[in-house]
Design goal:
Helix content: 55-70%
CATH class of the domain at 12-244: Mainly Alpha
Order of helices and strands: HHHHHHHHHHHHHHHEHEHEEEEHHEHHHH
Shape: globular
CATH architecture of the domain at 12-244: Up-down Bundle
CATH superfamily of the domain at 12-244: MFS general substrate transporter like domains
Length: 606
């Protein structure tokens, strides 16, 4: 078989391996851009976008659906990604995911109607969901045991670079917008804001094009080719990244594993279709699902997504809070580099144990700081409920005088002349929302506005992903309920920076361990025959946990405070630590077939 390869024995394969990692890394970059790009574009989109058909600006519900469309697309594509990866092959699915991303950019950046904008964001989500499954799957099946951790880590590293890049691009345009605003020309200011959000999307187009080109140039997964009966092609694919000896050895392992499976089925007189329900697959599948679920249960998406709000509540100014977010994303990026360097030296088990332990300590420290600061919180929901108008709205100016009137004779924050924070958590039927945090000494005197448009999703699809058990039609006629109206003293700036340091430490430990290793755990633990479909199911569980946390975050913070929420995240991470330390096998330096044999041996001994 080796005689048919054009690669000479002992040839240096470093160049191709680097190219393969570059292509996979570009996929991670696109995934990160998918996650982070909307945050910077949204303020300018909200200020300038008008639907060409109706002439109306976007309401809060439509904006929220534009943000959530990526999640919707990701859920849809994740559901079918494993099946498509088996049907089309890993390489073709990578190219398809990149093409979808490339198509989405002009669709969004040139949009002058609401639905083209939504459809473009939906395509971005579909692309991201496919990338999240197929790239780790492809890397696990193509890279040798010695480089698999580093390779998959680079995917995560460039994913974080995508988030950092999105944040820095947004910061750049923020300064540009402020410069134009200083000219006091309303039309020029409006035009530049419109240009800004469209440019933010255009900037992400070049890496998408490069990823598509690279996807056509890399080899197909050798293990996918082997399972399709194409042994010659599988060997040729292996020879692009390995020496002749390594390639033949891995192909022999594949053949031995396949022969052993066939012998077991024949000796039992059964023709059982391989499925996730086979006993020998249960342990690795459950481990992968627990690790992915716990990865979300650390609260990482909430810590990242609500970071400016968290830091603002902790005592930092608005500008400091946004710079804190930039620092957080940079810490994520830098520490991921160290994770990539260590994952094949120290191993997955060590990094996951170290990372989850550090996360627990960071969350507990942040929780204690918030618990101390939130002692002054006073709930004035009855006073705000009394301000609800007949059309079920509230317009609430908030300054020191308004704060004193709302607090009345209540203890806590009422007894201090310090500036105060106000956040209102409200609901229409089964849907909850929260106002932005307002400070009593804020020079911006605009009132806190509460309306149905700021709470309800624009349609049934968005409603399902926001709350699958809610009744949207009933909510459209439900009265406004003030769940919480929380006034608290603005903590000191020192307290704010201490909380910021805790979130930075959280991000550092997450990036070092779970951030790098979660993709490895997902792709390495699953046996070859179920890897693609198993990864799809596990990622759906991951997204379900993420959606649940997003749904309960605001109500929990409103009722119990940020301190309690951080303690809950810490408790969930304890489960992560126990799973990684005591149940997860070390997969460093093992081929996928050796990992599979480990689990088969374990289940057989039970």
């Amino acid at each position: 078989m080796s005689g048919k390869s054009n690669v000479a024995p002992g040839a240096d394969k470093t160049g191709y391996n680097r190219f393969l990692l570059l292509v996979a890394g570009l996929g991670g970059l696109l995934y990160g851009v998918d996650v982070g790009i909307i945050a910077g574009a949204l303020p300018y989109l909200e200020a300038t976008f008008k639907d060409a058909a109706t002439g109306q600006t976007l309401n809060a519900g439509q904006l929220s659906f534009i943000v959530a469309a990526v999640l919707l697309g990701s859920v849809i594509s994740t559901l079918f990604a494993g099946m498509l990866a088996d049907f089309l092959g890993r390489k073709k699915l990578m190219a398809a995911s990149g093409i979808l991303f490339v198509i989405s950019i002009p669709m969004i950046a040139l949009a002058h109607g609401y639905w083209p904008l939504v459809f473009g964001r939906l395509l971005q989500g579909i692309s991201g969901g496919l990338i999240g499954v197929v790239i780790p799957l492809y890397l696990a099946e193509c890279l040798g045991a010695a480089n698999r951790g580093k390779g998959t880590g680079i995917f995560q590293w460039l994913l974080t670079l995508g988030i950092v890049a999105a944040a820095l691009i947004a910061m750049y345009f923020s300064y540009q917008v402020d410069a134009v605003k200083a000219l006091h020309d309303p039309q020029k200011f409006f035009d530049f804001q419109d240009h800004a959000w469209r440019s933010i999307f255009w900037v992400s187009l070049p890496p998408g094009i490069l990823f598509v080109i690279g996807s056509f140039l890399v080899a197909e997964s050798p293990r996918w080719l082997f399972r399709r009966g194409r042994k010659e092609a599988a060997l040729a694919a292996l020879l692009r990244s390995r020496s002749d000896e390594q390639a033949k050895l891995e192909l022999q392992e594949m053949e031995e594993t396949a022969a052993a499976e066939k012998a077991k089925v024949s000796s039992a007189g059964e023709q059982i279709k391989e499925s996730l329900l086979r006993r020998k697959y249960v342990i690795p599948f459950l481990l992968a699902c627990v690790i992915l679920a716990c990865n979300q249960a650390t609260g990482v998406n909430s810590v990242i997504g609500y970071n400016p709000t968290i830091l603002f509540q902790a005592g930092l100014s608005d500008l400091q809070s946004h710079w804190g977010y930039v620092i957080l994303t940079t810490v994520n990026f830098v520490c991921t580099i160290f994770g990539v360097m260590l994952v094949d030296k120290k191993g997955r088990k060590f990094l996951l144990s170290l990372g989850s332990a550090g996360i627990i300590v960071s969350l507990i420290c942040a929780g204690l700081l918030f618990h101390n600061a939130e002692k002054s919180r006073v709930d004035v929901k009855d006073a705000v409920q009394a301000m609800v108008t007949a059309d079920q709205k509230v317009s609430l100016p908030f300054d020191e005088t308004a704060a004193a009137q709302l607090l009345g004779a209540k203890a806590g924050a009422a007894n201090s002349s310090q500036p105060k924070n106000l956040v209102v958590i409200y609901s229409y039927g089964d849907f909850h929302a929260a106002t932005a945090v307002k400070r009593s000494n804020d020079p911006d005197k605009t009132p806190v506005e509460i309306s149905r448009a700021g709470c309800l999703p624009p349609n049934q699809v968005a409603a399902f992903f926001q709350n699958p058990f809610a009744d949207l039609e009933a909510a459209k006629n439900a009265p406004l309920k003030i769940d919480n109206a929380l006034i608290s003293l603005v903590p000191s700036e020192q307290n704010g920076w201490l909380v910021a340091l805790c979130t930075f430490a959280f991000m550092a430990f997450f990036a070092l361990g779970p951030g790098v290793c979660v993709w490895l755990a997902l792709s390495e633990l699953m046996p070859t025959r179920i890897r693609s479909n198993g990864m799809s199911v596990a990622l759906l569980i991951n997204q379900a946990v993420s959606t649940t946390i997003a749904a309960v975050f605001l109500p929990t913070v409103g009722k119990y405070g940020y301190g309690t929420m951080f303690f809950v995240f810490a408790g969930c991470t304890v489960v992560y630590f126990i799973t990684a330390t005591f149940f997860l096998p070390e997969t460093k330096g093992k081929t996928l077939e050796e990992i599979e044999e480990h689990f088969e041996g374990r289940t057989n001994n039970q």
